[in-house]
Amino acid sequence: xPTSAARTSIAPPDExxxxxxxxxxxxxxxxxxxxxxxxxxxxxKAGWSVEDAVAAIDELRRTELISASWAH
Length: 72
What we know:
Elements: H1 20-45, H2 50-71
């Protein structure tokens, strides 16, 4: 089943896009938002508060950033 973020179009290179990053950023942000909404919804369904779910997601992101920096 396609997600709303998956339906976001990506501008072709001939439309004066300066970088690939600029072309992909809207899709990336939409996917990130969709993933966070689904994680929070799952946590709330499991009995967590929204605040605890958001804090846990933030901690996962920090852990991932630290792990990524050590890998380089």
